[in-house]
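Structure in, sequence out. Go:
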């Protein structure tokens, strides 16, 4: 497994600025999410907040997976119901009562990146959907507790996987978390499940590692596919999916969540 680019205490402190802007943007999204609101409205509000803070939207213009896929056109990813990640905001994507929507936000300021995501219920949601959100966020918070010097990536991945599966849900395997710092995506990959072969204990956490941990949990099966736009990922069985993410630094005193206000 690739090792992360370790950050000094000063660099981690600088990273907090970008991550606090991301946290503020997500707080604004929480206030705005409601039936009748379009994902484009959410996108425009997030972009205004980020740019007024002197930062740059990190997702806008991000290259596609191949030359045939255009750069990502928006500031946020807004993924509704069976959409797992990378949903593209649009004026005709109107939130409806009972939907769930994952909003992923990234920002760059002074050469450092921040990244976080939350899934919100729109109005009154079903008990099953509420349980999915609760379990997914809980799997993230449990994973964060493992991020101490000397602990391992296997423990983190196992924590997410067992939390989700014991609740009767499944973990997406095709998309994972990542290191973060002077680039949005740095090594290593951060899986939300323990691979069957060749993983061992994985990376052993060191002071100065900064990782974006992001469980993606489905009500149904774990399989996903990418739509023709080259970005939007949906569950193959069209069941609901939730996504929560924080950027976390490993310190001598344990994990430090950077994406909090």
């Amino acid at each position: 497994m690739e090792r992360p680019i370790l950050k000094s205490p000063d660099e981690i402190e600088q990273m907090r600025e970008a991550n606090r802007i991301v946290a503020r943007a997500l707080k604004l999204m929480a206030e705005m999410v409601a039936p009748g609101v379009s994902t484009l409205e959410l996108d425009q509000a997030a972009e205004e907040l980020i740019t007024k803070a002197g930062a740059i939207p990190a997702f806008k213009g991000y290259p596609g997976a191949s030359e045939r896929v255009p750069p990502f056109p928006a500031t946020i990813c807004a993924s509704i119901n069976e959409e797992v990640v990378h949903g593209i905001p649009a004026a005709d994507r109107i939130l409806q009562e009972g939907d769930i929507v994952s909003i992923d936000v990234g920002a760059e300021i002074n050469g450092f990146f921040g990244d976080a995501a939350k899934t919100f219920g729109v109005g009154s949601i079903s008990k099953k959907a509420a349980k999915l959100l609760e379990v997914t966020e809980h799997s993230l918070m449990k994973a964060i507790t493992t991020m101490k010097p000397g602990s391992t990536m296997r423990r983190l991945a196992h924590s997410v996987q067992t939390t989700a599966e014991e609740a009767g849900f499944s973990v997406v395997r095709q998309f994972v978390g990542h290191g973060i710092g002077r680039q949005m995506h740095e090594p290593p990959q951060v899986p939300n499940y323990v691979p069957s072969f060749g993983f061992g204990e994985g990376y052993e956490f060191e002071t100065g590692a900064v990782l974006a941990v992001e469980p993606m949990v489905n009500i149904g099966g774990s399989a996903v596919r990418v739509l023709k736009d080259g970005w939007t990922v949906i569950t193959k069985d069209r069941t609901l999916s939730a996504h929560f993410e924080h950027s976390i630094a490993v310190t001598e005193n344990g994990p430090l969540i950077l994406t909090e206000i």
